[in-house]
Amino acid sequence: MISIDVLVTQVSGLQRRDIDFWISQQWVRPDGHAGNYLFQDVDVARVRLIQELRDVMLVNEEALPVVLSLLDQLYDQRRRMRELCDAVSRISSDEMRQKLIRFLSAQSL
Amino acid sequence: MDDPYKILGVSNTASQDDIRLAYRNLAKKHHPDLNPGNVASEDRFKSIATANELLSDPIKRGKFDRGEIDAAGQERARQTSYRDFADADPGRRYGPSGFQPGGWSTDDLNDLFGSIFKQDPGSQNETFGNGWDESYVLTVSFLDAANGATKRLTLPDGRVLDVKIPSGTSDGQILRLRNQGTDGGSGGAKGDALIEIHVSPHPLFKRNGQDINLVLPVTLSEIVLGATVDVPTLNGSVHMRIPSNSAVGTKLRLRGRGIPAQNGKESGDLFAVLEVVLGPPDAALEAFLKSWKPEHPIEPRKAMEENS
C-alpha cells in the first residue's frame, strides 16, 4: 500500500491532478479517503494502464470510461471462467474431463 | 534480440515522431492488458516495448546506431501488468458494477447454466446442487399431435417415460416432465425432462394455427352439378355438401373440425379446397365440348390482356 505522494514519484509522467480526476470518476478506487488515499498493487497497475491508454494509445478522457468498462467486463468474465474451470477440475472425474475435452474440440471443427 | 527498427517496422532513418507513431499503433494492437491470455501478443509486446524504450530515447538510439550498446543490453523486465491482478482476486475491486464479492449468485448461475440447459427463468432448479434438466426429442404423428395421445419414451439410461401429448401440440413445442431429469446431489431437487416434440407431416392435412387445410379432389360433374361427398377429418370422415357451380379453389368450411379446443383456444375449422380431377381422356366429353355453345360466353383472360 502506498500513498498518493509515493505513487506520483513511482509512475513517471504522472500528475497528481490526473489521479485526483481519475478517482473522482471512479476509474481508480483506492482505499482510504481524500487526503489520505492508499493504493494497492492493483490500483497502481490500473493507474499505469490508464496512463498508457491515454498517453500511448491516445484514448481520450471522453472515451476512457467506455474502454475501462469493456475491460472490466472482460476481466470479470475471465475471473468467472477461471473459477468455473477450477470448480470443474475439482469436482469432475478424469473421465468427465476427457469427455469435455473431446466435446469441446469437436465443436471447433 | 532482433533489430529494434524491424520490430517497430520503421527504417533506421525514421524520425522520432515516426517511431512514436509506430509504437502507438503497435501498442493499440498488442498491449497485453487489452489481450489477456494471448501469449503471442504478450511476447510480441515485450519486444515492441523494449525496442521503443531504446529508440524513443535519442541518446540511447545514437549509442545503438554507433554500435556502443546492443538491443538486448537495454532489455528490462516490464513492471507487473494490470492483467496480472485483474485476472485474479484483486481484480474484483474493479468489477463491472463496483466491487464484486467472490462466489456466484443465483443470477450468475442462471446466466451460465440457463443458457446451456435451456432452463426457464422461472424454473425450480435455481440453487446449486439441484439436478439438471435433460432434453429429449420425440417424434409423433400429425394425428397424435392434433388429437392428443400418450407416447412411450425410453431414455438412454433405460428408464421408460409415458409422455402425455396434449391435443393441439405443435411442431417444436417443448413439454416439461417435472422431476424426470438428472438426480440432484445431496438432497437437491431432481431436474426436469424437457421433451421437444417433432410432428411428422401428414399427406392430406396441413395445420394453420387452430385450422386444418385439406385439398379435396372432385370430378367435373361434382363441381358443376354439386354433390354430397365424404371428407376425411382428424377423427373420421364426414359428409359435406358441394354447392353446384363451385369454382376450382373454393374453400369450403367444416366448422369445428380443426384442432380441438385446448388451453383456452377455441377449436379450429377444417377448410377443404376444391380441385378438379378430369381422369383419363373421355371421347363423349370431348365430343360434347366441341358441340357445346355456352349460354353466356366469357373471355376469362380479358383482364390479363388489359393488365399486361
Notes on the protein architecture:
The complex is a heterodimer of chains A (109) and B (308). Chain A is mostly helical and 109 residues long. Chain A folds into 2 domains: 1-59; 62-109. Chain A has 5 helices and 2 strands; from the N terminus they run ααββααα. In chain A, strands 1-2 form a two-stranded antiparallel ribbon. Helices cover 29% and strands 21% of the residues of chain B. In chain B, α2 packs antiparallel against α3. At the A-B interface, α3 and α4 of A face α2 and α5 of B.
Q: For the residues shown, what is the average pLDDT of chain A?
A: 87
Count of distinct strands of chain A: 2
Tell me roughly what share of residues is in helical segments of chain B. Answer: 25-40%
- What is the makeup of the main sheet of chain B? 4 strands, mixed
Ends of chain B: how far apart? Answer: 78 Å
Strand arrangement, major sheet of chain B: 6-7-11-10
Spatially, the strands of the biggest sheet of chain A line up as 1-2
**CA-based shape of chain B:** elongated
Q: Termini distance of chain A?
A: 48 Å
Looking at how many chains there are and whether they match, the oligomeric state comes to heterodimer
Secondary structural class of chain A = mainly alpha
Helix and strand string of chain B, N-terminal first?
Answer: HHHHHHEHEEEEEEHEEEEHH
Number of helices of chain A: 5
The CATH homologous superfamily of the largest domain in chain B: Urease metallochaperone UreE, N-terminal domain
CATH topology of the largest domain in chain B: HSP40/DNAj peptide-binding domain
Q: Which class of secondary structure composition applies to the elements of chain B?
A: alpha+beta
Which regions of chain A have little confidence, pLDDT < 50, spanning 5+ residues?
Answer: none
Radius of gyration of chain B: 38 Å
The count of DSSP E runs of length 2 or more, i.e. the number of strands of chain B, is 11
